């Protein structure tokens, strides 16, 4: 038997070598170095209207909420005795919680005290293109010592977040993010909390995922998270891990709106006490929900709000116990007079609620209208000679991925298929789209998590002129190519993609 096992391992090792060499050669010939370059993602011919000249912001008599955010280095303690060199907005992870009311004019002045350029992207917010915070596309990155002021109107209530989009695979990883909550006009929430989930490399080098053998063998197991599991060893909630996570204080029978944001690059599944949780909003859109699910699955970049009801005694909300490092991501829910000792996450099989589980209360399209633009988006993995692994859209890497070219008013259909072995949470800037919900009906979102072998068809209206990113929100995948542009043909970007302007 031992002899057979050795032979099997030798065979598998030989197979892996041949496979990796083959995919490297294939990827090389598919790379932009060996293919004719596409026409480009940005309309830089300077014909039509500059994105700087569309949608002027008029404050009128509406209230203005002003904030200042300073990007700076911070020694951040994740838990007692464990610190990281973080990059932060206003010296903490997450950055300052920005709360505004629907209809407010939001004005945020960014000051850069880092020694690298930064930006702020307002994730999920529908705003003018020039305020989207994408370097080389909607602005030049803010250089060290400089400032930039973002202005937009908070039209739509819900849970959002902000983060740097300059070399975002690194800068978001290092802590440049924070929550943005737009409260419904006249709303006075009694108990309303935001929890931002993330992963950190505290005891290892985050780049060790480039060990292709380990990553590829993990990807063949089919969990879709092999690369992320290689890269990170610590989970956090609001910048803290394990015992350092601040408990949620509630009394029996009390209800609270809990807003969850996944700022990391790994899928998380949070287990709630049975019967305590109801999903009420996904990506800032209210959903029709039942109270039958008590596991919340949240993909990178996604936001999901739940209505939580505190049961009797101390409780805990935490990552599924079977996940490595799950002990780091546990939120104690304690009464005012308790200590919360020996709390355990319920490990039994339970029903899961995720971003596509529930239909939205209001849809973009009651019936799907005639389609003007159709686009097939195939997600896959390849190799770039001398650069390592790449993540591709239609066998190309950004900026050579084929754009989705539209005119204002077009109805756009995108068929997304994941042909690879890893999860790809695809996020569209500047628009909301509609996709079929698993429980029937449809859900309105700005991010769809496409697992290996899955396909989704999304629909949206091209109603916001500009040059808008559509990319994987595992930013490590975006950094290696999985990005395209929704390109309005009647406008152009005056900015240039280069090393200083790197999304």
From TrEMBL:
GO terms for molecular function: copper ion binding; oxidoreductase activity. Keywords: Copper, Membrane, Metal-binding, Oxidoreductase, Transmembrane, Transmembrane helix. SUPFAM superfamilies: Cupredoxins. The keyword Transmembrane applies. Residues 71-185, 222-309, 389-486 form the Plastocyanin-like domain. The keyword Transit peptide does not apply. InterPro entries: Cu-oxidase-like_N (IPR011707), Cu-oxidase_2nd (IPR001117), Cu-oxidase_C (IPR011706), Cu-oxidase_fam (IPR045087), Cu_oxidase_CS (IPR033138), Cu_oxidase_Cu_BS (IPR002355), Cupredoxin (IPR008972). The chain crosses the membrane at residues 12-29. PANTHER family: FI03373P-RELATED (PTHR11709:SF394), MULTI-COPPER OXIDASE (PTHR11709). This is Multicopper oxidase domain-containing protein.
């Amino acid at each position: 038997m031992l002899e057979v096992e050795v032979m099997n391992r030798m065979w598998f090792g030989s197979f892996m070598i041949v496979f990796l060499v083959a995919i490297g050669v294939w990827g090389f010939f598919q790379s932009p170095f060996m293919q004719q370059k596409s026409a480009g993602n940005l309309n830089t011919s300077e014909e039509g209207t500059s994105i700087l000249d569309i949608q002027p912001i008029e404050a009128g008599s509406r209230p203005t909420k002003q904030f200042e955010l300073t990007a700076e280095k911070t020694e951040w303690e994740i838990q007692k005795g464990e610190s990281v060199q973080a990059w932060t907005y206003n010296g903490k992870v997450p950055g300052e919680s920005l709360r505004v009311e629907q209809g407010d004019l939001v004005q945020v002045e960014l000051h850069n005290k880092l020694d690298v350029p930064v930006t702020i992207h307002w994730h999920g917010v529908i705003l003018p293109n020039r305020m989207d915070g994408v370097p080389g596309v909607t602005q030049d990155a803010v250089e060290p010592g400089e400032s930039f002021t973002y202005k937009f109107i908070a039209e739509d209530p819900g849970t959002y977040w902000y983060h740097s989009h300059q070399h975002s695979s690194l800068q978001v990883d290092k802590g440049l993010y924070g929550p943005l909550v737009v409260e419904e006009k006249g709303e006075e929430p009694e108990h309303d909390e935001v929890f931002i989930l993330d992963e950190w490399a505290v005891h290892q080098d985050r780049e060790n995922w480039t060990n292709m053998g380990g990553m590829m063998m993990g990807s063949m197991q089919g969990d879709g998270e092999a690369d992320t599991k290689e890269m990170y060893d610590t989970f956090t909630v609001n910048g803290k891990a394990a015992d350092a996570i601040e408990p949620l204080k509630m009394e029996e029978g009390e209800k609270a709106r809990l807003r969850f944001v996944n700022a990391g690059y790994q899928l998380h599944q949070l287990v709630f006490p049975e019967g305590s949780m109801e999903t009420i909003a996904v990506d800032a859109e209210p959903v029709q929900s039942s109270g039958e699910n008590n596991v919340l699955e949240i993909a990178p970049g996604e936001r999901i709000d739940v209505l939580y009801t505190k049961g009797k005694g101390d409780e805990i909300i935490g990552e599924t116990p079977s996940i490595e490092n799950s002990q780091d991501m546990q939120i104690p829910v304690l009464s005012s007079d308790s200590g919360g000792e020996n709390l355990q996450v319920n490990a039994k099989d339970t029903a899961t609620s995720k971003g596509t589980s529930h239909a939205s209360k209001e849809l973009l399209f009651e019936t799907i209208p005639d389609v003007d633009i159709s686009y097939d988006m195939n997600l896959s993995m390849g190799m770039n000679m001398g650069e390592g692994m790449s993540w591709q859209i239609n066998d190309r890497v950004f900026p050579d991925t084929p754009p989705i070219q539209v005119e204002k008013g077009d109805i756009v259909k995108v068929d997304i298929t994941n042909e690879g072995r890893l999860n790809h949470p695809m996020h569209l800037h500047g628009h909301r789209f509609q996709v079929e919900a698993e429980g029937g009906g449809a859900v309105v979102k700005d991010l769809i998590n496409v697992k290996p072998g899955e396909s989704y068809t999304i629909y949206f209206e091209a109603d916001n002129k500009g040059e808008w990113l559509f990319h994987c929100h595992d930013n490590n995948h975006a950094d290696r190519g999985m990005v395209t542009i929704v390109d309005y043909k009647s406008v152009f970007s005056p900015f240039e993609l280069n090393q200083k302007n790197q999304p």
